[in-house]
Amino acid sequence: RGKGTSLPQVLYDTMTGPMLSKETMSQMMSDTNFGRAELEALHVTYKRKAHDAAAGGLTRAEFEDILASHGLSDPTFISGAFEATDTSGTGLVDFKELVATLSVLLKGTTEEMAQFEFDVWNSDKDGKMSKADFLKFFKNARSMDGVQSAEGDAEKAFDVVDKGGKGFISRAEFKQAIEDREFALGDPFYEFIHDPFNHKQSQGRIAGFSADERALFHLMGEIVKVPKGRPVPNSFKDLVNNTVDCFYLLIEGDAEAKYEGSDGPVKVEPGMDGFLFDETVFISGLQTPSTKSVKTLTDCTLIRIASADFMQAYLQDAGGAVALFQRLKLRMQASLADEENIASKGPSGMADFVTLKREMLSGNGKILSQSNINRALVEMQYAVRGLVPITAERIQQEINQGKGKKPFDEVLYCNIGNPHSVGQKPITFYREVLALVDCPTLMAKEGIEKVFPSDVVARAKELTSSIKGGTGAYSHSQGIPSIRANVAKFVEKRDGHPCNPGDLFLTNGASTGIQMMLSTIIAEPTDAVLVPIPQYPIYSALIKLLNGQQVGYQMDEATGWSLDMDELKEQILASRLRGHNPKALVIINPGNPVGNCLSYDNLVDLVKLCKTERLVLLADEVYQENIYMDRPFVSVKKVVRDLGKDYKGFELASFHSTSKGIIGECGRRGGYMELCGFDAEVQAQIYKLASSGLCSNLDGQVMMDLMVKGPQEGDASYKLFKEETSGIFDGLKRKSQMLMKALNEIDGISCQPLQGAMYAFPNIKLPPKAVEAAKKLGHAPDTFYALSLLEQTGICAVPGSGFGQKEGTYHLRLTFLPSEEKLVAALDRFRAHHASFMAKYKD
Q1: DSSP state of 78
Q2: What's the pLDDT tens digit per position in 437-452?
Q3: What per-residue confidence (pLDDT) applies to 36?
Q4: Which of 323, 513, 649, 683 is deepest in the core (most CB within 10 A)?
């Protein structure tokens, strides 16, 4: 095998043999959508399938077998694909022709796929699709919807596309009709045009593996040797004496196999076929008929894999390949200790094998792999940056690169509360002061007073005088004292109660404060935290990461997402009956994702409940400036202090941020946390935790100071500051009402009043057929809807399932941060999509 060569590389070299010339490889990489590793893997497939390569290429049967093994099941399309691929007209498909076709089917744009579809059905290959050819195409495409074409549908579609009544459809007309959806075909056809093999959807799941690992998913088994003239056993005993059925792939030597239905033995050559006893399976580029027996003709080396891994994982799709890879690594990892023990007793061959296996399992020499890192991290989910946003980024990239035409010019990101990314302008006063604080030498330059307003310069001097070493130096671990003093004054003015600067921690956004508190609270795996459902997923993610228990309590949608005390009591009791220890409760007010604002009385009831049940209350109040209706924001701290001396020791942590409100400076990562009522020793431990991170970033601290202490009336910057902040707030208020009204006017959608925050969380009543279709694709129903919305309109929303929702209900979270002009246009597309979606899946 050669010292210093990894096992995957050895197998890869064995399988591929001589590869393409550098010149040919470079040209094909230029002409197609494939990279080097993919072309090499395809070349392996080509060599396996072209049993008579000297003849010049793949026969029709061999070519069709490759498409079938990748998952295509329509024989009519596959047959037409051969004709479209055989551009030389030889009756054989050479490697370049195969790659050109697979480049389109696996990785092509919708425009490239539309052109290929045209070539499949254009029987005369003259660039003019006759009416007869079109009728065949339409019947086949309509069958994807599971319905028969109504009489005259195809003729009507032909007449619509045949511009000028020529009697045929050109390639350009055909492509444009697909882009504009003029054929009146259902989503299954357009989904097929976009991604025939579901390759684009699954490719992201395997991108983390190296090229030779991706090419060898089906080879990740044990190497075994069988002497000449011996039968290959259909099972083996593992080191703990379990019997395991197995799949084999021959990599050295010759053997013969008897397959189900064959007249006699068939010679098996290295890399050409695999065999799985009493089963027939297909893997990428490799057919394995049901095998009755196998006998070696020479000394043979084989790869052996437990057959259950094929049946339960690999055969699904590329995602199944990942599952297979992980299952095999875990299986092999489990046996490694026993094998190391055997090797330690002397067999040199076993020692070499164990060394190679250990290297492979550790990721080609890597100490960390997904199987040995923190399991809680692997299982942690964060929906705001999940499947739908990832798909949106891919679509936007295609638009930027000019690949294919969409029914929209850009993706409208309504998935995350990131105001500046969708066009909100920064507040001038904040940025001018920050510029001078970051570069204080500017204030010494002659004429600075002509560049910056006087109050900006004065404020920058005030800040720099209290920041020892400037914004490039560490500060106190709780934050700069003078800034904490200003935050305390802001809290006192807001609540009418004192605030001690020593109880304030300046943090990198609210998120760091939340993580600090959850890290402090969760001490045992049974410790539980109550979280609102729907919730912002940072809570579920961190609770999982910290190995705690999340207990969801349902907000009452029917009453504008209010708190239901009976529901809270029920969930607390249920948690204790499960053996958990509820220690804290999270409240998000104003609400993310639901856009509510809790009443004073509701908050009083909540505080009293937490005191009775001995729960620390964590108040996420980052949207307190985003209030659009009559009900005012009331902080939990105000409620606690209003309740009097009996609540003096009530344990409360409140969080605020510079990322939301009117300021919207998400990237500055400014925030604060206030602690009330905590034991002094516990607060000292929280301070120690803050100290381990040294301090929060200085620009974020400065931004927090500016947020809580803006220019005052009469200051040079006040007029512009007031115009900018009022303009942003008034725009958010208008857009919130516009979005709520528009959603409630759509049949089957209801949206509670948007009292605050930056989001709508409409309830969407999905028909049973849509729910069933989603399940078949392995998606949550609202994820299925959100993906359809994205593909058809360019609107990127987050499925409600990512935040949690009452069973049997489906929601989306939409921000109303984009500009009013873009939001109006997007809502028109939203209405049209919803009508089309509901018509398609109606009962």
Answers
A1: H
A2: 988 888 888 888 888 8
A3: 58
A4: 513
CA dist., res. 490 & res. 708, Å (int): 6
Average per-residue pLDDT for the chain = 78
Which region among 144-158, 725-739, 785-799, 806-820 has the lowest average model confidence (pLDDT)? 144-158
Alpha-helical runs (H) found in 417-508: 428-438, 448-451, 454-466, 481-495
Tell me the CB-side half-sphere exposure of residue 117, using CA atoms within 13 A: 29
Whether omega for the bond prior to residue 590 falls within 30 degrees of 0, making it cis, is yes
Closest CA to 6 of 465, 533, 362, 364: 364
Residue 146: CA count within 13 A, CB half-sphere: 6
Give the span between the Cα atoms of 532 and 568, in whole angstroms: 9
Higher per-residue pLDDT: 711 or 264 = 711
Q: Strand, coil or helix: what is 268?
A: strand
Cβ–Cβ under 8 Å, residues 615 and 583: yes
How is residue 338 written in tokens? 């026993």
pLDDT band at 17 (very low <50, low <70, confident <90, very high): very low
Give dist(CA 372, CA 367) in Å, integer: 9
Query: Residue 15 pLDDT > 60, yes or no?
Result: no
From its phi and psi, is residue 47 left (phi > 0), alpha (psi between -120 and 50) or beta?
Answer: alpha
Band of residue 41 on the pLDDT scale cut at 50, 70, 90: low
Q: Whole-angstrom distance between the N-terminal and C-terminal Cα of the chain?
A: 61
The whole-model pTM stands at 0.58
Phi, psi at residue 642, to the nearest 5°?
-65, -30
Contacts by 782-788 with C-beta closer than 8 Å and gap 24+?
782/810, 782/811, 782/812, 783/387, 783/388, 785/810, 785/812, 785/837, 786/388, 786/812, 787/387, 787/388, 787/391, 788/187, 788/833, 788/837
HEC-encoded secondary structure of 287-339: EECEEEEEEECCCEEEEEEEHHHHHHHHCCCHHHHHHHHHHHHHHHHHHHHHH
Question: Which residues, in sequence order, are bridge partners of residue 673?
Answer: 505, 655
Residue 551, SS3?
A: strand
Strand partners, 552: 531
Smallest Cα–Cα separation from 659: which of 384, 312, 408?
A: 384
Question: Residue 148 has what pLDDT?
Answer: 58
Point out which residues pair with 306 in neighbouring strands.
246
d(CA 432, CA 419): 19
Helices (H), 108-249: 110-121, 131-143, 153-161, 171-180, 187-194, 199-206, 211-215
* Gyration radius of the chain over CA positions: 32
Q: pLDDT (tens digit, 9 = 90+) per residue, 406-443?
A: 778 888 888 877 888 777 888 899 999 999 998 888 88
Q: What is the DSSP letter of 32?
A: S
CB atoms within 10 A of CB 390: 10
Which residue's structure tokens are 């939301």? 660
Q: How far is CA 82 from CA 59, 67, 89, 529, in A?
A: 9, 10, 10, 59
538, 514 in Cβ contact below 8 A?
A: yes
Which tokens in the block code for residue 247? 């799949």
Of 636, 596, 606, 631, nearest to 495 by C-alpha is 636
Position with higher pLDDT, 639 vs 45: 639
Consecutive H or E run containing 6: none
Distance CA 234, CA 306 (A): 10
Q: Give the pLDDT band of residue 284 (cuts 50, 70, 90).
A: very low
User: Are 267 and 256 within 8 A, CB to CB?
Assistant: yes
Q: What whole-number distance in Å separates Cα of residue 779 and Cα of residue 288?
A: 30
Cα(59)–Cα(430) distance, rounded to whole angstroms? 70
How far is CA 600 from each of CA 79, 593, 597, 611, 612, rounded to the nearest angstrom?
Answer: 69, 20, 10, 17, 19
